[in-house]
Fold this sequence. Notes:
By secondary structure, the protein is mainly alpha-helical. Helices cover 69% and strands 3% of the residues.
Amino acid sequence: xxxxxxxxxxxxxxxxxxxxxxxxxxxxxxxxxxxxxxxxxxxxxxxxxxxxxxxxxxxxxxxxxxxxxxxxxxxxxxxxxxxxxxxxxxxxxxxxxxxxxxxxxxxxxxxxxxxxxxxxxxxxxxxxxxxxxxxxxxxxxxxxxxxxxxxxxxxxxxxxxxxxxxxxxxxxxxxxxxxxxxxxxxxxxxxxxxxxxxxxxxxxxxxxxxxxxxxxxxxxxxxxxxxxxxxxxxxxxxxxxxxxxxxxxxxxxxxxxxxxxxxxxxxxxxxxxxxxxxxxxxxxxxxxxxxxxxxxxxxx
Length: 300
């Protein structure tokens, strides 16, 4: 049974679906940390296991202070993949899946991970600056922060910015436009800040929201501000793929699942471009959209 679960996880990662990859990473980190917590509980609060649990949290959570960040700069990344409570990770991953699926229907899936990471970084930065420089929030300095919410909020606002009139079905409510869903999310965050409820986390949501808006507005202008992140990941892949001194170039054969997924993504992008042409004309397309349409026409 354990082998089938591991194989299923490997298959999901190899499918090249960025939303699935983000969810898998978050879940793996969550399960590992909670395994340590369970062992700590079963061992009767063993000092060794308790120390390990404390070490994990203090080195994964974002410290929200300049001195803490100076000693643990990596936490600006690790915090956005770290969760403590089941309810917390459940809603973050559900939201990531729902809105990620919507957004990847209209833009390249390669933009998802950069948007998530930039949203998390923006959330950390906004929280750090506002907590340390606005006296009203000074009591929050040093309180650690964790969770994928800033990155997820960037994707939610990104989707609402790109396709505000697309409707999603909400339980007990029915179809609602994305722009109203996004407005409600932002309203709740501002309300929670005003009531001093999870101030750091909700400030991070606003930072992620700002990044989601900027990211998509730049995308509409034909600019990909997440490209440096993708180039970095490509560099890492190439670094680990090299074998010895000889450079071997291999073409990996795609599985049926990978081929169908990529074909569907390309078709969705083309359909969205054609729909845009029918509504606003060819000249309304960005340079990137024109190139995509041209390349698609050559393949036919």
